[in-house]
Automatic annotation (TrEMBL):
Species of origin: Sedimenticola thiotaurini
Entry-linked InterPro entries: Cyt_trans-like, PPAT, Rossmann-like_a/b/a_fold
Cofactor(s), by name: Mg(2+)
Positions bound to substrate: 9, 41, 73, 87
BP terms from Gene Ontology: coenzyme A biosynthetic process
Protein name: Phosphopantetheine adenylyltransferase
Site feature: Transition state stabilizer: 17
Pathway: Cofactor biosynthesis; coenzyme A biosynthesis; CoA from (R)-pantothenate: step 4/5
Entry keyword set: ATP-binding, Coenzyme A biosynthesis, Cytoplasm, Magnesium, Nucleotide-binding, Nucleotidyltransferase, Transferase
Length: 159
């Protein structure tokens, strides 16, 4: 059984994330969405809120499981018995950082492969950071995130 782990902070989960997850679900027997604690990034939503939003947004996608983690990614990958770490590449600017991460993960866990997927063109420019900034300034983010995320963002006070 081929299992892919798609890790991230998902603060919040965007339509770009959802697109990658839906496509990965066609390629793998199981896709685990690993929601990272990442307190260092100063997330807008708590870990529990991010897991809850991901569960709601992805409820209709078969073969997907949402899990939270606060450990080294390769350790979490082994815990999940995942074969692949799935990462998204939106632009060339993402590549250098993701390439470094993939190399380090390969060094730490040579049995785990890293696979990159690119989002559909209409989602290539969407990032959680931009969505949060637009929402904090009163902009409309409804074309970038699920309606439940719009609702959650509208209920959150900017930091």
């Amino acid at each position: 059984m081929a299992v892919a782990l798609y890790p991230g902070t998902f603060d919040p989960i965007t339509n770009g994330h959802t697109d990658l997850i839906q496509r990965a679900a066609k390629l793998f027997d199981k896709v685990i969405v690993g929601v990272a604690a990442s307190s260092g990034k100063g997330p807008r939503f708590s870990l529990e809120e991010r897991v809850d939003l991901a569960n709601q947004v992805l409820a209709s996608v078969k073969k997907v499981e949402i899990m939270q983690f606060d450990t080294l990614l390769v350790d979490f990958t082994r815990q999940c018995k995942a074969d692949v770490i799935l990462r998204g590449l939106r632009a060339v600017s993402d590549f250098e950082y993701e390439f470094q991460l993939a190399g380090m993960n390969r060094r730490l866990a040579p049995e785990v492969e890293t696979m990159f997927l690119t989002p559909a063109e209409q989602f290539a420019y969407i990032s959680s950071s931009l969505v949060k900034e637009i929402a904090a300034l009163g902009g409309n983010v409804s074309e970038f995130v699920h309606p439940l995320v719009v609702e959650a963002l509208n209920g959150k006070q900017p930091d």
